[in-house]
Design brief:
Blueprint: E1 29-33, H1 38-50, E2 53-57, H2 67-80, E3 88-91, H3 100-111, E4 115-120, H4 126-143, E5 150-155, H5 158-162, H6 164-168, E6 174-179, H7 181-188, E7 203-205, E8 216-218, H8 223-236, E9 239-241, H9 251-264, E10 269-271, H10 274-284, H11 288-300, E11 308-310, E12 313-315, H12 317-334, H13 338-344
Parallel strand pairs: 1-2, 1-10, 2-3, 3-4, 4-5, 5-6, 6-9
Antiparallel strand pairs: 7-8, 11-12
Bound molecules: acetyl coenzyme *A (ACO), pyruvic acid and magnesium ion.
Pyruvic acid binds next to helix 7.
Length: about 350
């Protein structure tokens, strides 16, 4: 941990000042695209209009012989394609890989002023963030950038989960974290072959009750990790995200998995396919009826004090704060989405 007095000092002479607050905008989905694919690049303006965040992926899913093409495609996207105000992120290759140094040097030098966040895979501890932190500062200084590029860590190794709090607090550049259920499953030696979602074998069985069939319920394999991630992120003032749901055609399963994460405190999830954008939008935008109720609570207790009854339910300071979370999110989303503004009466 750095001396608190120097925590917000730039890590290289000439690098921009670290931010005190992480920028907040709609973050319901981080939409992944393959920048080595001409077809996906051609679709980017449409994707930018429908996704909250666009991410050019350079790591897993990009084959070794297309790594350089992907990097070059992302530079082109950042320079030449009009993405409006949609934030542009990247996922660079893993820190031990032969590509990551060129990923960082090229992207910061060529499109550093357009790039909002660098997602770092397989983060194991604060030392990984410190490495990227210092390197980004040096590159930002050389490129003359005026705004720091933020870091988003993927939580996808057992060691990373064990160190989740120190990762969340490793740098003022930390924007947030995503669950990486595929690599995490492998790292933990879980016996699954899926990318996120549940498993029919992971369930609890009710006690025998005579001849009646015993009730049985599937459980969420990711509950524990999401809980740890949400607490670590909230405590550090950064944002937790569910990661990918790999069964592209199972939109119902995707919705259920995203909803569990939303209810537990995640602000968004990844979309790997255009069909998942609508799912994330639906799940991570609060229900109009919940927003209406939350507004009633805020109006009933305008100074956040005392105790009240609304529809038979006790309301006090704590429910006022919950309602504020809901209404603040609704206002943020409504400011950019006329349909939601109407649904929320804002
Ligand atoms: C564990 C992890 O690390 S997850 C993160 C890494 N993985 C990724 O980034 C995967 C990103 N997604 C993809 O590559 C693709 O969506 C796939 C391979 C999963 C499925 O692709 P396809 O089989 O082409 O799907 P499908 O046929 O339904 O695609 C329909 C259209 O959407 C396009 N499309 C598919 N995915 C995307 C995307 N992520 N962004 C933009 N367009 C897309 C296809 O190119 C196709 O376009 P067309 O109609 O002009 O031909
Ligand atoms: C998200 C990711 O990279 C994983 O699940 O492995
Ligand atoms: Mg992974």
């Amino acid at each position: 941990m750095r001396n608190p007095r120097s925590h917000f000092a730039p890590l290289a002479i000439g690098a921009p000042e670290p931010l005190r607050e992480i920028p907040v905008g709609p973050m319901r989905m981080i939409h992944f695209f393959d920048p080595s694919s001409e077809k996906m690049l051609a679709r980017l303006p449409d994707m930018a209009a429908s996704a909250d965040i666009l991410l050019g992926n350079l790591e897993d899913a990009i084959p070794a012989d297309r790594k350089e093409a992907a990097r070059a495609g992302l530079v082109r996207a950042g320079r030449e394609i009009d993405l409006g105000s949609t934030p542009l992120w990247t996922r660079v290759n893993a820190l031990e890989s032969p590509w990551v140094l060129d990923d960082l040097v090229t992207l910061v030098t060529e499109i550093g002023s357009r790039l909002d966040v660098v997602m770092v895979p397989k983060v194991e501890g604060a030392w990984d963030i410190h490495y990227v932190d210092r390197l980004l500062a040096q590159l930002e200084a050389r490129a003359g950038l005026s705004r720091p590029i933020l870091i988003h860590a993927i939580l996808e190794t057992a060691q990373g989960v064990a160190n989740v709090e120190e990762i969340a607090n490793a740098s003022p550049r930390m924007q947030g974290m995503s669950l990486g259920p595929a690599d995490l499953a492998a790292s933990r030696r879980m016996k699954t072959t899926r990318v996120g979602g549940g498993h029919p074998g992971y369930r609890v069985l009710g006690d025998p009750a005579g001849d009646a069939a015993r009730p049985s319920y599937q459980q969420d394999l990711w509950h524990y990790t999401i809980g740890r991630m949400v607490d670590a992120c909230a405590a550090a003032g950064i944002f937790p995200f569910y990661g990918p749901f790999g069964d592209i055609k199972d939109l119902e399963g995707c919705e259920a998995q995203f909803r569990g994460a939303y209810l537990m405190g995640c602000v968004g999830a990844w979309s790997l396919h255009p069909g998942q954008i609508a799912v994330a939008k639906k799940v991570f935008s609060p229900e109009p009826s919940e927003v209406a109720f939350a507004k009633r609570v805020l109006e009933a207790i305008p100074d956040g004090a005392g105790v009240h009854m609304i529809d038979g339910k006790m309301q006090d300071d704590a429910t006022w704060k919950q309602s504020k979370v809901m209404v603040d999110l609704a206002e943020l989303l409504a400011a950019k989405d006329p349909e939601l503004a109407e649904a929320y009466g804002m």
